[in-house]
Task: structure prediction
Amino acid sequence: MKRPFLLCAVLVCLGASGYARAKLPHSSKPRPQSVTIPRATFAKIHIGMSEDSVLTVFRSYAARKQVIQADSMTYIETDSIMVFGQPAYLQAQLLHKRVRTIAINFHPLSGDRYLNIRDEVDKYLQRLFGRGIEETEESMTHHRWETEEGTMEVSHSDKYTRVFIRLGKPRA
Result:
């Protein structure tokens, strides 16, 4: 008599625990609050970075930096640093102590080095944001990507490559 009762009690307990587990709401799993848009990182600097982080990164990379305060904008410029293995000048434009714009001007490069850096930057941004828009004006070529966060642009001519990444509203 005790064995069937014990067996029934065990089965009822197991069934109840299985039912309770099955009824748990799916909210127990953490869900992302929002979709994160990929941010292009150049020389460890990206859009939205805080001012003290930018200064720390520049301190480790650049021998000299210049900080210019103009109205509500702060401009932090470096001397020549290495970006994608090539020398470049980098400028971070900050608004409310956050990076709003990154401008990178690569030094004039000769031969294959110029073509390689131009293609490498284009491929890097295409991996993050897709094909984008390409416009050509005389000797200048502009590659532009529009996201919810803003505009990324790479411009190059026969002599130089410039990367311009801006946080803001996309063009209409």
